Amino acid sequence: MAIDNHTVKRIAFLSRLKVEDAKIESTKEEFNKILAWIEELNEIDTENVEPLIAVNDTTLRVREDVVSDGNYKDDILKNAPSAEYDYFAVPKVVE
Amino acid sequence: MTDITRLTVAEALNSLKNKEFSAVELTEQYIKNMEAGRKYNAYITECADVAIKQAEEADKRYAAGTNRALEGIPLGIKDLFCTKDIRTTAASHILDNFVPPYESTVTQHLLNDGAVFLGKLNLDEFAMGGSNETSYFGPVINPWSKDKNLVPGGSSGGSAAAVAAHMCAAATGTDTGGSIREPAAFCGITGIKPTYGRCSRWGIVAFASSLDQAGPIAQDVRDCALLLRSMSGFDAKDSTSCDIAVPDYENFMNGDIRGLTIGLPKEYRPEGLNPEIAAYWDKATEYLKARGANVKEISLPHTKYALATYYVLAPAEASSNLARYDGIRYGFRANGEHLDDLYINTRTQGFGAEVKRRIMIGTYVLSAGYYDAYFLKAQKMRRLIHNDFLEAFKQCDVILTPTSPITAFPIGDESMLQNPINMYLNDVFTVSVNLAGLPALSLPIGLSANGLPYGMQLIGKPFDEGTLFNVAAKLEADAKFERI
User: Does the CB of B386 have a partner CB in chain A at under 8 Å?
Assistant: First the structure.
């Protein structure tokens, strides 16, 4: 399944990354090389194989539904590139 | 007086207890080595002042007789572990100003045991790489380098280089596809990736959450046992952490290996395997046989597919985990007129080339129309690879393989840089272990003709790190490898 220039642009946008126009062709080639290599997985029939999602087949633990953490507003905002009125600040979204 | 930074952690602890030197003296010596070793670029952030304060506290504890398991031992911390009030970068521009307001569980365990932190160690950006060349802070130089500067391996390259060059007594690492074992092998030291679920992942910058595990990198097997005991343990804050008692790993080193069956996977010995490492593999097998172990050829039939499986699953998980770096809540922000521009500019400028490559591959294999063909397919292959090990461990107690088919290579190696797949192939002996969630240890076995270390890998059953320490102790005693 080789990908085309349009797909490179679409994947870049989904990833919220920009690929310069001059680099689309080389990115596509590099991806196709990697994807062609991954194609070798199709040598194996996995029709009736259960996917492995987690190696430890433990069920998730439950706990009492109580507040056990929180109240670190200042700590949380300390690393924000921009914060105003105790909130994270972003460029204007609604005109 | 002998150089006290040459001591192992176990030896230094003895000397500290016997008041042969103080924790402050020991820490000061390591700080000198750290400063003299800046040419290796092993540390991203040095914390000499914090370390001295911690060492003073350790000396008070020794005086009062309330010293803990690792009291006063100066460690280096891979810069993927969040450390409270100490900058944590993941070797990325996107986090180069991030100061965590909290401590990772693993580093908290070490602090609770009295360890001293010298600083934060260099790595591949977000632990994505096998050579430490993808770091925003530049490559680390392998202390074994002679005429040419060599890579230390990756991604825990700063950890391995710092331990090898005595710039810390031991270090933490993380391993998603070989990131503890490969650099340990390249730098002639010892490292263990424990069973998935043994060490809490809480507070470690996430790469591929179903594969990531923390572990120690140290001078020798005993030090790994000491460190791993401290780092391990159940943590309610990591939903995949296992509530299983942590044994005293050091005790296993006195064990006997008579009657133990060592498995040798035939798929790890392809036509054309580097004859030097093949010879060391044979030699290691002979050492274990001479001590009464049985040796058995085993088969891990899907080995050939492990790398391709890994390079679908790891980027997929990474693309999801790294979606959080958006320039809003923490880290680097680039301006943009609209919110999407801000995200795109921040991520495009903030991430390096290899990280962007993996995010995009991961996004692609998870995208509508391709999910079943790539991601689901890889999860099914992961089951088959996992089953291979389940079958193999019915016939043997521990598996012996090389850690890497090669020794450290030069920084900027053309064939590695031109084709990312060539770099990925170095992980051929290590990735299966992560896919199966098993514990595996790498220790040095000997030198190549041109004087560079080779590592051997021991793979164990889930939560059977103890057997790895038992067998590794014997191999270490027989190989008599000389560290720098």
Answer: yes
**A46: nearest CA in chain B?**
B380
Interface size A-B, in CB pairs within 8 Å, comes to 149
Instruction: Please state the pTM of the whole predicted model.
Output: 0.97
Task: Taking residues B434-458, report their average pLDDT.
Answer: 98
Strand pairing report for B116-121 and B74-78 = parallel
Catalytic (active-site) positions of B: 78, 155, 179
Average pLDDT over every residue of A23-34: 94
What residues contact B220, with CB distance under 8 A and at least 6 apart? B8, B189, B190, B476
Question: What kind and span of H or E run contains B444?
Answer: strand B440-447
CA distances from B278 to A24, B137, B186, B284, B294 (A): 42, 36, 16, 10, 19
- B348 and A17 within 8 Å at the Cβ level: the answer is yes
What's the CATH code of the domain at B246? Answer: 3.90.1300.10
Kindly determine whether residue A46 and residue B344, on different chains, have CB atoms separated by under 8 Å. no
Q: Can you give the residue range of the structural domain that contains B104?
A: 4-257+400-479
Which long-range contacts link A50-53 to residues 24+ away (Cβ below 8 Å)? A50/B380, A50/B383, A51/B376, A51/B379, A51/B380, A51/B382, A51/B383, A52/B379, A52/B380, A52/B382, A52/B383, A52/B386, A53/B210, A53/B379
Q: Do the domain assignments include residue B265? A: no
Chain A within 8 Å of B363 (Cβ-Cβ)?
A: yes
Chain B residues whose CB is inside 8 A of the A9 CB are none
Nearest residue on chain A to B236, alpha-carbon basis: A61
- Per-residue pLDDT of B72-122, as tens digits, reads 999 999 999 999 999 999 999 999 999 999 999 999 999 999 999 999 999
Quick check: is B352 in a domain? Answer: no
Q: Over 90: is that where the pLDDT of B302 sits?
A: yes
Residue B384 belongs to a domain: no
> Residue A94 burial (CB < 10 Å; 0-12/13-18/19+)?
exposed
- Which chain A residues are Cβ-neighbours of B347 within 8 angstroms? 15-17
- Token pair for A18: 């920009």
Give A-chain residues touching B350 at CB under 8 angstroms. none
Peptide bond into A26 cis (omega under 30): no
pLDDT tens digits along A29-79: 999 999 999 999 999 999 999 999 989 876 788 889 999 888 999 999 999
Closest chain B residue by Cα to residue A38: B308
Q: What is the pLDDT of residues B377-414, one digit of tens each?
A: 999 999 999 999 999 999 999 999 999 999 999 999 88
Q: How many domains does chain B have?
A: 1
Q: Report the pLDDT averaged over residues B214-234.
A: 98
Identify the band that residue A1 occupies on the pLDDT scale cut at 50, 70 and 90.
low
Token pair listed for A90: 């972003």
Paired strand residues for B190: B218
Beta bridge partners of B86: B83
Gap between the Cα atoms of B204 and B193, Å rounded: 15
Q: Is residue B305 part of a domain?
A: no
Q: Identity (one letter) of the amino acid at B456? A: M
